[in-house]
Amino acid sequence: MPDKTVPSLRIAPSDLPASLKNVVEYRKSGLSLNHVVGCPLDCGYCVRHLFQNFEMKQPHLVVSDHEAVDLLVGHWAFRPDTTPIQIFNRATDPFLPGVKDHLFATLELLDERHFTNPVLVISRWKIEPSDVHRFDRLKHLRLTILVTWSGIDDDRIEPVDSVHAENSLRVLHEHARRTKSILYWRPLIAGLNDSDQHIGRALALSSLAGATVFTGLFHRAEIREHLRLSGVPDVYPEIARRKILPAETEKRIIDAFAGRPLFRKTSCGIAYVLHRADYNGHYGIREMCDICPAEQVARCALVHQKPKVSQVTELAAIAKLETDHISIDHRRIELSNSSEQQRYFIQHTLNYQVHDRDHPHRFGRHGRAELGWE
Asked: Which of 6, 43, 297, 325 is 20 to 30 A from residue 286's alpha carbon, by CA?
């Protein structure tokens, strides 16, 4: 097998935060592989603020692509052909110069092992026709490119021109055959990029992708502080653990997109373009499905099966989760004292929602912050 490791980046410094030295982490949209860290794009709302990495502007390599792939497939939660995978979605943009070489190498190493897992790649940068042709040569992985677009034109919040995302959507639309694409409208911030003009632009762009996913803003303390220091007045009066997307903003978007494939959740959009059921089991939260195309609801209904307590207990043991009481109803599994990584492993294995009692999901909130839903 040819060596697919591409040593085009500097090695990450030894004092890298521990959160970034751990290159495999479970997130809601999949097992996340991040062996390249650092980004010059300076988006003010970036989650890199939460990993003490925002000041690293040049991408660095934490481990080689071979070692990264071995760590991923050797992770306790990885299941061949089942576990959704994300690549470079936490600490860099996968299409930056140099980073892109490692994206291709990683994908090809996984594909050579004949894995058919769904793979998510999220970017707001420039995608070229040659990139798409190389993606289409993958034979086994089920790849979806989520092109992040916001329409925000305030450089203090997002200095990256949204025209790059628009061009990337066109390139994917014109050249992709096997590779799927999604318009990823985020972050939606009430009063900033939810005007009629923004909605109209998103509608036009949606015709270039297989589906549109829209989501709100993580307004964590670190992000709010960065925006304040940049001279941006608080976009919301509160910080929140979950993403903020007010009900009024959501309603306007749903009304405008009537009849088009629009989804509240990332995994729902991916499932739709792949013609599969949602691996996060959102079908149990039936009010989540009220905007989904009928054919997608039918796909998810076919696999929605209430699991047995014994199944959950077995998976909890694998995840080293000790929980006093497991309850299961037609909507979700409920546990106690669980971490997100433990819950997502069980959720993806069973295609069934898993919630923790300390962080309840309120009816109709779709797992979002309470702000704007009173």
From this structure: 325
